[in-house]
Amino acid sequence: MVKALVVCRAGVGSSMLLQTKIEQICAKRGYKIEVSHGKLDDLVGFDGDVIVTMSDLASEIEGKFPHVVSIFDITNEEEIGQKMGEFINAYDGMPSAADDKARVDVFLGIMQEQVKAFIDSIDYDSITAAKRLIQDAEAKGGRLHVTGIGKPGHVSGYAASLFSSTGTPTYELHGTECVHGSAGQVVPGDVVIAISNSGNTSELKATVTCLKGNGVKIISLTGNPDSWLAKEGDVTLIAGVKEEGDPMNKPPRASIIVEILMLQSLSILLQEDFGLDPKQYVKWHPGGSLGASIREGK
Questions:
Q1: Closest Cα to residue 13, out of 46, 57, 50?
Q2: CA-CA distance, 220 to 145, in Å (whole number)?
Q3: Which of the residue ranges 89-93, 116-120, 137-141, 262-266 would you say has the lowest mean pLDDT?
Q4: By CB neighbour count within 10 A (0-12 exposed, 13-18 middle, 19+ buried), where does 217 fall?
Q5: How far does CA 160 lie from the centroid of its chain?
Q6: Is the pLDDT of residue 190 over 70?
Q7: Strand pairing of 33-39 and 2-8?
Q8: Please, which residues bridge with residue 145 across strands?
Q9: φ and ψ of 224, to 5 deg
Q10: Is pLDDT of 57 > 80?
Q11: Are 146 and 172 in contact (CB under 8 A)?
Q12: Of 3, 23, 123, 147, which one has the greatest count of Cβ atoms within 10 A?
């Protein structure tokens, strides 16, 4: 059954009249619908299917609620019947809230399984080896960079920011621009974390080959221990999944989560060895609620 809320600015008068009209027309046409009325403020917390309102208010609601039916003349039964019929007929093909919950639950269940399997399989010695490679480079004046292609490229930006804010200055290196001149940001002795779930991405192969030719050490982060990238790394971190979370098993979801968890694990070791405390952290992160919470001793 469709659940509809009819709203006007004050919640009386127009919305009450339109509610009555909708109930009468839908009853005649055999539409199963539950209709209530209210004011604009009643939109907050409404968990039904459709908002019905007058056309002069529709622009204030559209974009804030998925389904809005706009009525120009609240006395025009033909207009009301046509527009409500169009929505209800379309709604019959829409997944219900219960259907949506079931699909999300399947996804979250897969994520839980994949993250647990990843945690159970972590090679802690490899994380320590990665930490030491970075620290050895820093001790000799080297720097850390992170790169990736596609979604892992976005992960590299987050990782560079996280490492930098917790004691390890780090630079994001664009995964494809590297071979078009951006390799100039690295110097011999630097370390680059290269991220690829498959470990066989052609663009990243070119980037890693270029970087190694410039005297850079590589930490490979991949989900495929048999991949080209895994074999090219001076240190290799394995963060793989069998299922991404949807029926196609292609768009990266679970693989991105475990890549981030691996990088966060490495960042914890570097942060704690650095000896980061709130006094230093707030110098690097003075902004926002986080910075304010440290200054206020929270």
A1: 57
A2: 12
A3: 89-93
A4: buried
A5: 17
A6: yes
A7: parallel
A8: 171, 192
A9: -120, 100
A10: yes
A11: yes
A12: 147
The pLDDT value given to residue 217:
98
Residue 256 CA, chain-centre distance (Å), reads 9
Q: What is the pLDDT of residue 169?
A: 97
pTM of the complete model: 0.73
> Does residue 11 surpass a pLDDT of 80?
no
Nearest to 72 by CA among 87, 84, 54: 54
Q: Which of 13, 71, 58, 61 is nearest to 41 (CA)?
A: 61
Reported confidence tier of residue 113, pLDDT bands at 50, 70, 90? very high
Residues 6+ apart with CB under 8 A from 81: 25, 29
Q: Residue 127: which of 189, 191, 220, 197 has the closest Cα?
A: 220
> DSSP string of 214-280?
TT-EEEEEES-TTSHHHHH-SEEEE---S--SSTT--S-SHHHHHHHHHHHHHHHHHHHHHT--HHH
Count of positions (residues) in the chain: 298
pLDDT confidence bin for 223, thresholds 50/70/90: very high
Q: What is the pLDDT of residues 25-38, one digit of tens each?
A: 989 888 888 999 98
Q: Give the SS3 label for residue 147.
A: strand
254 to 58, 117, 147, 187, 207: CA distances (angstroms): 39, 11, 19, 34, 25
Other CB atoms within a 10 A radius of the CB of residue 93 amount to 6
Q: Tell me the C-alpha distance between 87 and 202, whole Å.
A: 47
Compute the distance between CA of residue 217 and CA of residue 232 in angstroms, rounded to an integer: 10
Q: Coil, helix or strand for 61? A: helix
Separation CA 26–CA 81 (nearest Å): 7
